[in-house]
Amino acid sequence: MRELPVYQAADYQIQWAKVIDHTRCIGCHACTTACKSENEVPLSVTRTYVKHVDVGEFPNTRRAHQVTRCNQ
Q1: For residue 59, is the peptide bond before it cis, meaning its omega torsion is within 30 degrees of 0?
Q2: Which residues contact 35 (CB under 8 A, 6 or more apart)?
Q3: Long-range contacts of residues 26-29, Cβ cutoff 8 Å, at least 24 apart
Q4: CA separation for the pair 28, 33 (Å, rounded)
Q5: Residue 42 pLDDT greater than 70, yes or no
Q6: pTM over the 0.70 mark
Q7: Which of 15, 27, 42, 54 has the greatest number of CB atoms lying within 10 Å of its CB?
Q8: What are phi and psi of 6, to 5 degrees?
Q9: pLDDT score for 1
Q10: SS3 string of the chain?
């Protein structure tokens, strides 16, 4: 059996992640704003899209939101 190397905390760089629950989307575009801010996206460019989808038949209809990101 071989020995595994021991890593110190200084060996790693902290990496952050953002988790978004698509099932709770209300169509507010906060994710679009956060993406633009964190990734320094120019004002005229959008990498995150919120698509509004009408679901059901009258009179039982509702609006759902589908979030699409640049890495999907």
Answers
A1: yes
A2: 41, 47, 48, 69, 70
A3: 26/65, 27/52, 27/63, 27/65
A4: 10
A5: yes
A6: no
A7: 27
A8: -95, 125
A9: 74
A10: CCCCCCCCHHHCCCCCCCCCCHHHCCCCCHHHHHHHHHCCCCCCCCCCEEEEEEEEECCEEEEEEEEECCCC
